[in-house]
Amino acid sequence: MSPSILKAKQYIEEQEGCYRIIGKRVSLDSIVYAFLAGQSPESIVQSFPVLTLEEVYGAIAFYLANRPTIDAYLSEGQQLFETLRQQARENNALLYQKLYGIQNSSS
């Protein structure tokens, strides 16, 4: 039997500042947050049936190999979300007052 040359398979691509599973619309963020919440790769596949178990393990391996960079990326995303959320509250103050008023009165 002749030795074969194995290549490392890529599972993650970066497009327009977003990390995704290659060929899928699932973000790396989704998998990492599930993984950090304690979900097993098998349960992550159940949550994202478009993914294979191999792709989930590949995404987790990518995260672990690039943890400082991906953690910084996730932190930037959270900061952007909070900024946009605060802007939405300021721009739609009456809507939020009504939402919270309804929510508080029904509690």
Automatic annotation (TrEMBL):
Residues making up the signal peptide according to the UniProt record: none
Name of the featured protein: DUF433 domain-containing protein
Pfam families the UniProt entry points to: DUF433
InterPro entries reported in the protein's UniProt record: DUF433, Homeodomain-like_sf, WH-like_DNA-bd_sf
